Give the backbone structure.
Amino acid sequence: MMLVCRLLIVLFLSSLASFAEAAGIPINNPARIEDVQKIVSTFGIDQGMQNAIRRDVENNNRTKPELFFDQEIYMRPFTVDAINLHTSTVLAKYISHDYAQKLLKELPKPVGKISTRLWLIEMNQNLDSARSEFNKLSAADRKAVNEFRSSPTFLSMLNALNNSKEERKEELAVWSGNEMQGRVRQARKSIAELMEIGIKLGKDEVGENLKLSERIPLTGQRFFDQEARLTFEYLRANIKQNLRFSEELKALDLANVLKPANLTSHQGIENGNLVILTAENMFDDNSKRYDSLRTSYTDALEKIVMSPQQRQEIIAINKKNMEDILDLRIRRNEHLRAFLELKKQVLALCESSYGKIKVDGDTLLFDNDQDVNKYNSLVKQINVERQALLDLEKQDLEERARTLDTFKKK
């Protein structure tokens, strides 16, 4: 069975880089994280980073449609507050407690407010817009801004941003990867639960009040989500089909066709032949419905927008799965046909000996050895075919259990 086991793409947030490439060393008297959070919020660094992540997603979707991300789902964890905390946790290690305190005292002052406003214009628009706004200031304000921006207090923040850049990028990459992996685990858990139910159903270990999940959690990565959703819906449809078929088969009562009491009357023999004919049609219809589900599933998978390598992988997996399924189906159908045919031969034998057979408890009594030997031979063959079907079912369940175990470990 094809299952979702794709490697996830973690976007490289290149546009978050604003300064030189030099990596810094954390200082000995780091600032309090809550102080740095206020600084990051005042300068809109958190909002700017959120905008940068969003631009990276948009650019990825334009240039790499096979790696398309649903922006609304992908951006859910990246709130301004969450970005602020992750950024400030790293940045606090690179700015001293004293300078952070001094900066917080300067920011509410007129020169701090003007400098912050210019910073935001440059970040959200461009440098030319900030220069234009700066030139509109009075000479005194321009002088005050220049002095503030060249002060050790302000430069300490710029140095902290510069020196922490690589660690902040790594922090965001790890955070992004962990968020995506968490969503993937939830999606895979939903699929694994259905696989487990399918196995339990094969072992007749499913209770009457079985409830199947209606939907699978989404990760935001379109290729992964489409494949996961198709697999989830395919497994769910299979379970519902198997449940329906199991109920129909129980109602048919195929196991009682050859009960001795049913083999000594025309009505019993006629009913037995009708039950076997119905069973043959049911097995055939169930097989066709399963094939239809499988074909729809594989066709839909191959229509997903994906890279050539991913498409080649899916086609190869499909081919291998279909070969395995076809081999099992052929062997099962051969034994099933033989099983039902042998039952019909028992009914034919009893019909030809009608009136000559008696029932003693659960035993048929024939009036000649030839019929006894033929009956015993047919029952023996029926038991052989029944065991062969049980062995194939066991083989199938064991293989599915191994697949589930492998899936859970990935």
Notes: Residues 87 and 168 are 6 Å apart (CA to CA). Confidence is low (pLDDT under 50) at residues 1-23.
